[in-house]
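Sharing a chain and its predicted structure for anyone who wants a worked example. Both blocks are below, sequence first, tokens second.
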Amino acid sequence: MLNGNDMNIVLSSLEPNDITIIREWKPYPAEFSELDYALREGGWLDEFYPYPNTHLFTAKWENEIIGFSLLSIQGVETEFRIALKPDKIGKGFGKTVALATITEFYKLHEEDSLYLIVRLSNTVAQSLYKSIGFIPDQEVTKDIQGIPVQFLKMKYTKGYICG
């Protein structure tokens, strides 16, 4: 259990029935609508759930799944992703879930290469990631549902965890 911002977040392994609950979440508000695919069929959970080198977590607050995160080992690097329930965005949960996931990463792995990608247009998320130690690395283009999207790849500096 991680305490932060007066919230007790419990991170646990994602179970198949958790996917059903996540897919029932309401869509993201208009300003985050391009992120909604991550929660739906064909999104992140379908993409990463079958990977043998991926750890998927649910984040629970007051017995409610309020988000999920994943760590996917890809060669010498590990990719980090996080998604929150739409009604929990902007309430401090993202930082708490991210820090809990990073803590789990260092419990599970010795290497120190952790990265994420964030849309170039999502400056709020970029600020959050910078505040917990992610450093901008390079711009990349990824194909998302047939559309090229610009992202910023950010790397995590081992040992830098702020509260």
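Comments welcome. Confidence is low (pLDDT under 50) at residues 1-5.
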